[in-house]
Amino acid sequence: MNWVAPIKDDTTLEKFKQKLREVDDKYYILFEIGVGTGLQLQEILKFRNKDIRDKDSIEASIGTKNIKRTFQIPQELKEIISQYTEGKDPEAYLILGHSGSPVPLSREQAYRVFKNVGKSMGLNAIGAQTMRKTFAWRYYKETNDIYYIQNLLNHASPSITYRYIGEKPNVEVVLKKMTPEENERSRYMLYKDNAGKNRIHALTEELIHIERELDNPTNNDAFYGRVDCLLAELEELMDNFKNTK
Fold this sequence. Notes:
By secondary structure, the chain is mainly α. It folds into two domains: 10-149, hpI Integrase, Chain A (Orthogonal Bundle); 180-243. It is 61% helix and 5% strand. It has 13 helices and two strands. It has helices spanning 10-23, 25-37, 41-44, 49-52, 75-85, 107-120, 130-143, 146-152, 158-165, 171-177, 180-191, 195-213, 221-243; strands at residues 57-62, 67-72. It has a two-stranded antiparallel sheet with strand order 1-2. Strand 1 and strand 2 (67-72) form a beta hairpin. It is elongated, with a radius of gyration of 23 Å. The protein starts with 9 loop residues before the first helix and ends with a helix.
């Protein structure tokens, strides 16, 4: 399965939108809504014009358990949607399929267009999740609030959200914001069957192995580069752990 990444560069993002518009306005609108709200592709394709026109927010179900979440619609996006839906049948689907067809665009077709436009720009990590990941990454960069994104996307933990947007976890923020319930669960899981001690032991053994390999003359420079990066990450994590009360 190919990794799908957010579009982080502003210029690249605007160029991608413009190329979608050159294919058809509906792909541009679809992408704008996804990047502007964090809604999933399949949810956007269900909307009729009346569902989203002149709305400040919209409720949608996410995940296999159909968890309800409210997604905000920024003013600038509201205006874009208003222009696109002006004069259109309120009962018609927002993003239609083939010209003249009353059925909504298929998820597969949207994916194909996103993928092809991405390839034309040399972007190989484009997929159905690109809109949502781009929204999440940009919101995090603007607010540093990983917990809002975690809740909105219904992720089980901040670490999952950090991986989702391709960012290194801010351990200090995570440690300070863990709830009493999360702390209690962590205590239980670490005590259960000595899981905490076993995990520490496994990490210690791996570090001892790496330490021994430092004297192995057959290792190439790339090995030492990886070790240097690993140690820098561990040192930062340990500093955050020690300095967080």
